[in-house]
Amino acid sequence: MSDGPVLERINRGLPTLRRSERKVADVVLADPHKVVPMTLAELAEAAGVSQPTIVRFANAIGCDGFHDFRIQLAQSVALGIPATQSVIQAQDDTGTTVSKIFDFSITSLDHVRRHLDLAAIDAAVAALAASTHIVFVGLGASGIVAMDAEQKFPLFGVPCSAPVDAHQQFLAASTSGPSTAFVAISNTGRTVSILDTVRVARERGAVVIGITGDRSPLAELSTIPLVVESLDNTDVYTPTISRLAQLVVIDVLATMVLLRRDASALEDIRTMKTRLATMRSGLHHEAVRDPNRPGRP
Amino acid sequence: MSDGPVLERINRGLPTLRRSERKVADVVLADPHKVVPMTLAELAEAAGVSQPTIVRFANAIGCDGFHDFRIQLAQSVALGIPATQSVIQAQDDTGTTVSKIFDFSITSLDHVRRHLDLAAIDAAVAALAASTHIVFVGLGASGIVAMDAEQKFPLFGVPCSAPVDAHQQFLAASTSGPSTAFVAISNTGRTVSILDTVRVARERGAVVIGITGDRSPLAELSTIPLVVESLDNTDVYTPTISRLAQLVVIDVLATMVLLRRDASALEDIRTMKTRLATMRSGLHHEAVRDPNRPGRP
DNA sequence: CGGCGTCTTGTAAGTTTGCTACAGAATCAC
DNA sequence: GTGATTCTGTAGCAAACTTACAAGACGCCG
């Protein structure tokens, strides 16, 4: 009962609440922002119940008194209203829509952070740092993540590739070896071509890091499964959130691999960054080169 | 003084604080998480000052009493410690590094949300909804964002393209017209080839939506400048955050354009999504097709 | 349908917490 | 070195939160 953000807990515990406590829950859920600065007496007034009922309500949803409840509510609200509360509707105005999407993205990232397997991260970092080259594969939205990774990782001097279509991916798997780190990205973890590719990579002895949304076939097949559990709900209006979390996880991996390297690698990056800044201004003279290389204008 | 998260305000107001108040500030900044559940008396004890000093401290940094301070602190902490507090260091353990990167990503998204120009969003949505086709351009990390947008927008039935290199982009600009929505993405807003491309697009009469990090040349050149102000600090270790914010902005635009459409478009997407789910399982049989199309496995 | 038991809710008192007025101490200016 | 000003702590007060208890509501079984 005491897991997760307060608002989620209220929703979950709704059926077990007494009638008056439920009135309190309704007031809180109706507009959490309004409740945050309220005093106990004010909330009692607003819900039409007595003050002790508020305290009992707070205890019922797993808080240690009203103080604790208010603090936890404030934190919940700061992270945005949970997804269940923020279904995007056609009649919402611009500000509301923007808020909902950002709130959802932020809440989701927070959720991923809390459910990340640190041991798996460590293992993945070790594998990546030990590899002589890295292959990133993904299709659709996950393909975007793979390309992003391909941009970020070569900074360490390790050759990277991110083959675009399933055939190229299969080929890359076929030519991989024990010193290859093979990073497969699939939110569903059930895309057949990715699974086939991963099987081949493992047969060739590559270390496979599987970034996926839950305990899926891909996770089973991977040497190091990395579950990035995002709150991808089924509402059509709600945009895909899994990419964001996957990108941040890539950031984490890249940063930690970098931290493993010595200061010289760091220096390389500094000089690279300054060179990039100067070349960027003259980019149009040599625009034919591989567009993925130039960096991040 | 009363703008921004509390911790930032404390940092900013540090010089104007009295000596005892400063002791309080030190305690708070040293470990904000510890302070959140503290009572006024406890914090006074911890800082080695009297209780009224705490109250004066709270007022000094723009809070309305200790109550308000505690709530605001709780909210600040929920969004992660501000970037200034969380420089990633080599000796950090895995959990710390993960926390810092996620915190920073989340804080940054929150910052962007607060600084987004809603009028510009509205204008962009109107332009996108009115266009007959949409072109997304960006290089490097922004190129990734452009490709993501290309995956997302065709859902509405409007043809989209995201030319990959500078030449192709220039070509797309040259063939654009008044009914083209031209979305240029560049965090610096100073990449020369992008600026050249945008100039051409405008000459051809296209509506140019410029997504950029600050009031840059690109913003000046755009019909509708969309400033996505992320907290990209200069620390080498700190990963690029601008992509995330840009992706979320793309989500917002896509969602809002979709909301403008009628229910039929919605139905199209529902059926598309279910079809996608079934086809995904058999994808390897027809993997030669354009890998960007299949969706988001 | 009515009485009894349990669960629920509000009243009231008690305790903690946060706030304010005031006075002493320190600091700075002259 | 003295005076004025600013800062800091002591003490008391008001408000908020909590607990104990009793009245009321509800359901169950006779």
From TrEMBL, chains A, B:
* Gene3D superfamilies named among the record's database cross-references: Glucose-6-phosphate isomerase like protein, domain 1, Winged helix-like DNA-binding domain superfamily/Winged helix DNA-binding domain
Q: Which GO terms describe its biological process?
A: carbohydrate derivative metabolic process
Please name the Pfam families in this protein's record: HTH_6, SIS
Signal sequence span is none
Family annotation (InterPro entries): Cro/C1-type_HTH, Homeodomain-like_sf, HTH_RpiR, RpiR-like, RpiR-like_SIS, SIS_dom, SIS_dom_sf, WH-like_DNA-bd_sf
HTH rpiR-type domain location is 4-80
**SUPFAM superfamilies in the record:** Homeodomain-like, SIS domain
GO MF term list: carbohydrate derivative binding; DNA binding; DNA-binding transcription factor activity
Which keywords does this Swiss-Prot/TrEMBL entry list?
Answer: DNA-binding, Transcription, Transcription regulation
List all membrane-crossing ranges.
Answer: none
Give the matching CDD domains: HTH_XRE, SIS_RpiR
Ranges where the SIS domain occurs: 124-263
Name of the protein in question:
SIS domain-containing protein
Q: What does UniProt list as this organism's lineage?
A: Bacteria, Bacillati, Actinomycetota, Actinomycetes, Micromonosporales
